[in-house]
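Annotated sample (chain length 536).
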Amino acid sequence: MGLGTLRGCLLAVGLFAVALAGRFALAPVLPPLGFPFLTFFPAVLLATYFAGLGPGLLTGLLSILAAWFFFIEPYGSFALKTTADRIALVFFISIILIDILVIHRMNAAVARLADEQQRSARLAEELRRLNTLLEERVRQEVAAREAAHVKLAQDQRLRALGQLAGGVAHDFNNVMQAVQSGASLIRRRAESPEAVRHLAQMVEEATRRGASVTRRLLAFAKRGEMRLEPVDPARLLGGLREIFWHTLGTHIEIRIDVAPQLPVLLTDPGQLETVLVNLATNARDAMPRGGILTIGARSETLSPDRAAALGLADGPCVTFTVRDTGEGMSAEVLARAGEPFFSTKAVGSGTGLGLAMARGFVEQSGGALEIESAPGVGTAVTIRLPAATPDQLGEEVQPLPLPAPRRRRVLLVDDDALVRDFLAESLGEEGYPVVRASSGAGALALLAAGEEPDFLVTDCEMAGMDGLALLDAARAVPAFTRLPTILLTGKVEHGLDKVFAERMAADPLLRILHKPVGVEELTRELALLEQQGRAS
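Output written by the structure step:
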């Protein structure tokens, strides 16, 4: 409470004047010897409350002088006749001062309270602003960290692919050498059917080996959700043997120890291979001067208490162990080994995501991962994955018998002339007349010219119109709305498998095969499509 100094003084004088006039007005009705200060108390209180300490003191001083001069005998004088008058005047002065101080302290308390409320409001507003800013920063940091985690995870996969590149090139050079040599020998020995048959078998075996490497490499590089399928642990490790040999170098002695009769797993084989290759790479890095890397697999049934401690379901499991004779880890490093982004390697030599990714895959598969290590002893990483149950595997699907091929006409579309010619010749040998086209537009032109194929076999990745677009365009022609179709693809891309799966689920007359495709597999699918067409 308070007014400007001049306004406060004017208010004080005004209130004093009203109080003095009121006292004079009450003089006729008040006893001549009593109540000299009656009307001055409200004036002093009001002046102090509204105008502050100074105007309150001014009003009090004027009130004391007026009451003393006008209303204490002898009137019109500042002389005091009796001790009682002196006591009354002192009492009035004391009460006035006490009232002024009390009102002043009250005003100060009210002002402080108002200031505190305003300060609290400002602080609350600032707190809300900072909280909003902090939440936004946290969202940005979390999003950035998640993006970095995803990028680094893929970078690590690509780095591992880079390490595999030399070995893959070696394998493919061997495949190409075998194919080239076989083709050359077939040309020279064309007059000997037995020799040609033997050489052709060798070429086919070389191409199957190349296809195996390609599929493994594509599965290794693929991102996305887990694709569960039955996995034979012994066959998987056998397929990785050459990858380990090419990736780890000649200074590492690799030992594969696989127990007999391992149960089947239900997991994502590509991700499991990724985990094992990454663990083997980590083991190699821990043995810069060379050493022994042992990769083993065995069947194991844990006690209920041990399984519960590891978070595993009861029942048999397959235990993979990757053991090295390297430098080992201290207790402090071992405690942090599974943390994302933690790495003891030099900057740029590792992302710190290998073990974290491995643990994530294993736990997502219902398994458990353990690490044992000590300085100078080496490191052993143990992965336990639950064996597949009969219910999970389902009944074994028996292959459908191949009906005798009928002379059904095939429209074959591929923009690679070599692939197109080989497939056409192979289908022709199996009794299928083939009409060839080098592009989607060329195939549509043949249909428009009156060609009436019973099947469409087309490459999926072609310049201009791809295989899916050609399929849709061909099916748009009224005569070919139910044209059985096989798409051939050489890619495994993120999201592409999902698109293919959705198309095949909705279209019983569509098949999708991954290159390279053998003629037996292709004719089998054509026969199945023919059966499906008759059934529908």
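Annotation: Confidence is low (pLDDT under 50) at residues 346-352, 395-406.
Annotation: The longest helix spans residues 83-188.
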